[in-house]
Amino acid sequence: MPTAIAVTSADLVLPAPDRHTPGAAVLHPPGEADLEAALAETTALLERHGHLVALVPPWLPPATVRRLHTVRAILETDRIALLDIDLPPLGTAVLARQLRQLTVSDFSPGVLASAARLLSHYIYAGAVLGSVAKLDRIPVGLKAHARSWSPSAQFAVLAHPRPHLARIGAAAPAHGGVLPPGPAFATHLTFARGTLTSDWVTAELAPAWKVQGVMENPLPADSARWWATPKLVEFAAAIPDVSVLYQLVASVRREQCRWCGFELIGDRCGFCAAPIATPPPEAGTTPRPHATAGS
To answer: Beta partners for 70?
Structure first.
């Protein structure tokens, strides 16, 4: 069986894009399962899949993060990778789907785990918000804070890979700068509605970014907290083609973790988080940089 990809809530499991893509495991938080149940659940996943790669975004409740690390420590296994990926909730779900797509390839568990950091750089995650008064994820100017008090205010916010904020709608400025800078590669757009009434993502953003497809999904439960308002439409554009994802990961030089022995790409092991040791340059030579997944 392929390596298991795990998330911490069922609303982070997006529909599979094809019949070959497996589902994701849901690791239940402390409020839904006790420690004994969590240990049994994780043990069963390891017995079935061999290795487990779990996304652990920083916006998870501390108790959930502690539970994940406790389970790994009690099981005393090096076959569980807990990946710290800083994306908004819908972007996290999209990344999990990409990793699920790659599990059916010939990548080893170590390469698959370390590929998450590489793939996250190519996800454009943002939202249309009715207010940015409490938003602290990206810089918000005083004018934007003041305009948030208007009942008709709407803002286009890009959180990743580069922060961008602009007012949209009838009251938006006529000059440029409204649209967030989009990807320079083919993507599909996934979006999810909160309580905000807006078609801007499908009517304006999708055509401007020249996306190849648009799919709507339910809004993750943590999105309103991440964006500091329930008045939102969250979106994430990402590479949909598994062959392109495969080529992207396969193009990066592979290393072997000096600590746990896993094969990996980038500058850090996904399973033990040990950094890659850079050998000292030979006398009289200038060190040459090489491509990494984390740069």
So the answer is: none
